[in-house]
Amino acid sequence: MRVALGHVDEYDERTAAFARQSGLAGVQLHTPGNLAGTDGYWSEAELKALRERIEGDGLRLEGLENVPAAHFALIQRGAPGRDEQIENYQRTIANMAAAGIPILGHHWMPTYVWRTSMDAPGRGGAHVSSFHLPDTAAGNALAAYKLTPDDPIDPPLTAEDMWSNYQYFLDAVLPVAEEVGVRLSLHPDDPPVTEPLGGAARIFTSPAALVEARDRAHGSRAWGLTLCTGSVSAMAGAANVTEVIDLLGPGGHIAYVHLRDVRGTVPTFSECFLGEGNFHPPSILRRLHRAGFDGFVIDDHVPAMEGDVATWGDTSSEAYCSRGRAHELGYISGIVDALGIGS
């Protein structure tokens, strides 16, 4: 198990230095602005150039998460044009393999992550994001984020639609991923509510649903789970996090981990510092180790502390390299070292 700098939206000299100063050897990037993807997919040349740049900074590129919405939205919606987007997604997978990048994460939320506040009060006056289901009628407080779609979903997508579209996607892309050796990793829904948000039902809202996703991959070694402990914790607390680890960890189905937590569960929760949420972080990391997990763990959605620019809705490197993130990374690294489970 190793700790990496994660969810980097804009990789530059500042984030590279932040990773090294935090004692980390690897980074994971999230729909990075460094990749143009102008033809509807990420090219081998731009992917290779990015990996080489990161390695030139003395770091390892652990993987990528989430292609741009313009490359993926029709696939999720099952709308006309999805087959072309799937062909381009297959190109991205093959190009990642050729460029030496092993993991591509994906989400299955056509209206992306929802929050009802990006500036809720946290511990000591820190700023955190929060969700309160009755307030969603006012819209998504994260609507300005780059992966949140602008166009409405009409007609609405039912749970049956979402499952059908996911199966169609898996059947098309897993054979390519298997052939070239890239792993595709599913992120649980955030927030994990069964009520539709923005016209789209949510289906990955329980441990049972994540197991079904695994089963729908028909044993493919190319399918994995991005264990976002915050999203799973928001389902029903610590018990759900341990259940997912116990169900999917021993089979090697957890590709990597977003280590964060929330206070409360759906329909109302707020993000928080690790150690004050629903679960006990050392117990979760120990359980992952005992389940055989040997991948990377990243920080995710950190609170904004005094002097920080903003919570995670701001993707600039100035906002990213924050006091809140340094605190979180030190906390995680300290647990890994204390437990003696690092690689």
What would your notes on this structure say?
By secondary structure, the protein is of the alpha/beta class. It has a single domain (2-339), classed as Divalent-metal-dependent TIM barrel enzymes (TIM Barrel), CATH 3.20.20.150. It has eleven helices and twelve strands. It has helices at 13-21, 44-56, 73-77, 82-99, 159-180, 207-216, 229-236, 238-248, 281-290, 317-320, 323-339; strands at 2-8, 26-30, 60-65, 103-106, 117-121, 127-132, 183-186, 223-228, 254-258, 261-265, 268-272, 296-298. The strands form two sheets. Strands 1-2-3-4-7-8-9-12 form an eight-stranded parallel beta barrel, surrounded by six helices. Helix 9 packs across helix 11. The protein is globular. The relative contact order is 0.15. The model has no long low-confidence stretch (mean pLDDT 96).
Low-confidence stretches: none
CATH superfamily: Divalent-metal-dependent TIM barrel enzymes
Task: Give the N-to-C terminal Cα separation.
Answer: 5 Å
Mean pLDDT over the full residue set: 96
* Main β sheet profile: 8 strands, parallel, barrel
Question: At the third CATH level, what is the topology name?
Answer: TIM Barrel
Q: Assign the CATH class.
A: Alpha Beta
Strand-pairing-aware structural class: alpha/beta
Number of helices: 11
Strand content is 15-25%
Topology pattern, helix = H, strand = E = EHEHEHHEEEHEHEHHEEEHEHH
Backbone CA Rg: 19 Å
Which CATH architecture would you pick? Alpha-Beta Barrel
- Overall helicity: 25-40%
- Shape assignment: globular
Report strand order across the widest sheet: 1-2-3-4-7-8-9-12
Total number of distinct structural domains: 1
Q: How many β-strand runs?
A: 12
Pfam families: UxuA
Protein name: mannonate dehydratase
GO molecular function, one term: mannonate dehydratase activity
Pathway: Carbohydrate metabolism; pentose and glucuronate interconversion
